[in-house]
Amino acid sequence: MEIFGIPIQALFGQLLIGLINGSFYALLSLGLAVIFGLLNIINFTHGAQYMLGAFCSYLLLNKLGVGYWWSLLIAPIIVGASGMLIERLMLARLYKLDHLYGLLLTFGLALIIQGLFRNEFGSSGLPYRVPAELTGGQNLGFMFLPNYRGWVVVTSLVVCLVTWYVIERTKLGAYLRAATENPQLVQAFGINVPRMITLTYGFGVALAAFAGVMAAPIYQVNPLMGADLIIVVFAVVVIGGMGSIMGAIVTGFGLGIIEGLTKVFYPEASNTVIFIIMAIVLLVKPAGLFGTQK
Fold first, then answer.
1. What domains lie within the chain, and their CATH numbers?
2. Across-strand partners of 145?
């Protein structure tokens, strides 16, 4: 069976690839949106922290024998804690300065982290096996769905929606948003605002590390895996609206699907379609699809 002259298996196969890519776009852009929306930090270290999550799971498995499931918990905690250390020791000193200083600091940190890991592990990819519980796949008739790919898509969607709910619909989220608008007032209610800011940054970094752990069995663990992805993720955040949680989720999954379909119908544009969409969105709505003009 064909659609527009294209075999249906090829079409759905690219849709699946688009959904998988969109899952990582959504998770990473969500972390960026949390950090920028609540802290006003443009975190260029995000790609390196995604890579750290993948390497952390790789080292836990090969050095300590800690498997995939525990890595999903341990790696985000370790990388998130390192993010909180960066926020307290470095970024906290730049909050009263122009955003450019934070951008330059995080960009420099990303280059340092990538350089250290490239020097230690080289630039070739390191394999990470799929957990035994998620090997194999399901024959859906029109396509074969690998179990691990399905797990990645569903888990990413659940994590994204839970994060959106906590930030937009709970008292904790209200405190976080209030702390960014009027920290003095929130401090007057007995809330430790600096600690809240540190934990928020750590959570955004932990989301990147979580994505890195899930990416490890699909893409080989590589020191440059974050550098290859972060530019696309920043484009996703800009299209969705800087700081918009729902914008990051919807745009991440949506652009992943669009990118996958472009590879079917017009492969030559698959590497640039996201940036073309970004240019069009910025011309029509500079604040992004879900953003608000300040």
1. 2-284 (1.10.3470)
2. 138
Distance CA 7, CA 211 (A): 31
Q: What is the pLDDT of residues 258-282, one digit of tens each?
A: 999 898 888 888 889 999 999 999 9
Nearest alpha-carbon partner for 16 in 186, 151, 119, 134: 151
* Three-state DSSP class for residue 221: strand
CA-CA-CA-CA torsion for 86, 92, 98, 101, nearest 10 degrees?
-30
Helix (H, G, I), strand (E, B) or coil at 144: strand
Spatial distance between the Cα atoms of 164 and 57, rounded to a whole number of angstroms: 26
Longest dimension (CA), the chain: 66
Write out the two tokens for 288.
């992004």
Per-residue pLDDT tens over the stretch 92-135: 888 888 888 888 999 999 999 999 999 999 888 899 999 999 99
Distance CA 176, CA 167 (A): 8
